Amino acid sequence: MDHDRSSPDRAPSRRTVLRSAAAVSAAATLTAVDVRPAHARAVHRYPFALGVASGDPLPRAVVLWTRLVQDPFSAASMGDADVEVGWEVARDRSFRTVVRRGTALARRRYAHSVHVDVNGLSPATDYWYRFRAAPYLSPAGRTRTTPVAGASPARVRFAVASCQNFQHGYWPAYTAMAAEDLDLVVHLGDYLYESDPGGALPGRRHRAPQVPGLNQLRTLTDYRARHAQYKLDPALQAAHAAAPWMAVWDDHEVENNYAALVDDVADTGARLQPPAVFATQRAAAYQAYWEHLPLRPRPVLGTPAYRVYRGADFGTLLRLTLLDTRQYRTEQPGGLPGDYAAEAVGRANTAGSLTGAAQEAWLRDRLVTSGARWNVVAQQTMMMRTRWPASFAGLALPYVSSVDQWDGYAPQRTRILQRLVTDRIANPVVLSADVHSTWFNDLVVDPDDPYAPVVATELVAPAISSHFVGEAEVRASLATLNPWTRYFDGSRRGYLLMDVDRDRWQVRARTVDSVTTRSSPVRTTATYVVAAGRPGVVHG
């Protein structure tokens, strides 16, 4: 067990101190970017209740985010005017050495969110940032730029998170993550969940949407309110303020198991929407996602498309490529009312794609042009051929496959894995999530061949709080159904911590004892290693 512990009260108390100090320090800080009175009329009380964040770092730039609110659950409470917001970036946490400052508009049309793309920074450098609106000063956040192209950093350290169902538990994992010294946080989806109010934990019930009873969100108002509810959590705010993030969605940010403009296959009656109607819902969800995260490009209002697949380089050490496996995917194969089916259904899906042709070509180009020591593909669902116990679906089969994962799109998976071999991609590592459990897997082109060479490693992050059902059944059948798995744990929630240098990739499962309380210790419950030049993950 790891002896490391983090205080769950660390971040909230720091925010309290900053808020208390804001009134005293506001007159003496950000003086060069004081907002004009005409732009401050909508700010009648502290507007930074949703915290601050940074993301999408580059060698000389990073995106800073906040959103002004008066009532977090009503965008209209900020009024109809745009609000001018001051911002500054410093080399020190006390803001004695300010290197960049300016103003930005918190626009009404974007729920008074602020996205500042700060340029002119130094590579591989820590910075602190904050905002001001009227007399109010925001909490300070820490961010970090990436190394310049061609640099050879000694290491990179980042965390991987996913699946934070608000109703399934509290987020002590984020309190712990905020205490890690990170270059980056990679979030692989299910940042929020669209379900109706439920659950029994105090203060962890979703707010009702505008149309209750559908068990899903529909409108821009719905998605904004749900994002705000999640963002009010102090542990999540602390994790955002501690390091830059790169986030990409999965399904629940819009609706469970959607595919492109195809509604959830299980929907019937009032929940079922034709593509034209679902496009309106998806446009609202995508806009709200951008409004609440530090993403660089601005969405086009009212359109159901927004590109989130992108990448980042850490000099010659690591190339990170983030995929979007929801927006462009073809419909689930088989025409079934659920996710589980015979394995043959996915194998026959020769025309199916999780990425779409354009994104697949972009992925290959990033891989073949990479000069990095490690090449990382971060995406949403389990890539390894995964056989689940038949009890998961109640089918008269020896095992079942999930057609919502890569198993439903097996020919494309084979094509991508084969290209890792033919294109001689150096040290490929796949990061996955979605299944609310930790898996460390070896990836092979032909999983039916017991002697198949390992071509890549897959590291599947646990959920921050979302439940996993069936841990005992999966564990009991692991050796027979999934012999390429080297580690599995469905009993704990948490995140993955990666320490990468030129010789090895170390992954640690950082898990919490419980998500039924706000405070819980974090422990390292597994440590595994991938050696450069030798694909495959081994106990470390």
Describe the structure.
This protein is α+β, with helices and mostly antiparallel strands. The chain folds into 2 domains: 29-144, Purple acid phosphatase-like, N-terminal (Immunoglobulin-like); 156-539, Purple Acid Phosphatase, chain A, domain 2 (4-Layer Sandwich). The protein is 20% helix and 26% strand. Helix 4 (220-231) packs parallel to helix 6. The longest helix is centred in the middle third of the chain and has 17 residues, at 275-291. The model is unreliable at 1-29 and 31-35 (pLDDT under 50).
Brief description of this entry?
With 540 residues, this protein is of the alpha+beta class. It has helices spanning 10-25, 37-40, 172-179, 220-231, 234-242, 275-291, 343-347, 357-368, 410-422, 471-481, and strands at residues 52-55, 61-67, 83-90, 98-106, 113-119, 126-133, 136-137, 141-144, 156-161, 184-187, 245-247, 310-314, 318-322, 340-341, 374-378, 388-389, 399-402, 428-432, 438-444, 454-460, 485-489, 493-500, 504-512, 522-531, 534-539.
Low-confidence sequence ranges? 1-29, 31-35
What is the CATH homologous superfamily assignment of the largest domain? Answer: Alkaline phosphatase D (PhoD)
If you compute it from the alpha carbons, what radius of gyration comes out, rounded to the nearest whole angstrom? 23 Å
Alpha-beta content class: alpha+beta
Largest sheet: 7 strands, mixed
Amount of helix: 10-25%
Write down the CATH topology of the largest domain: Purple Acid Phosphatase, chain A, domain 2
Task: Tell me the fraction of residues in β-strands, as a range.
Answer: 25-35%
Distance between the termini: 13 Å
The first-level CATH class name of the largest domain: Alpha Beta
Number of domains: 2
Number of strands: 25
Mean pLDDT metric: 93
Strand order of the largest sheet: 11-10-9-22-23-24-25
- Shape summary: globular
- What CATH architecture of the largest domain would you give? 4-Layer Sandwich
Q: What is the number of helices?
A: 10
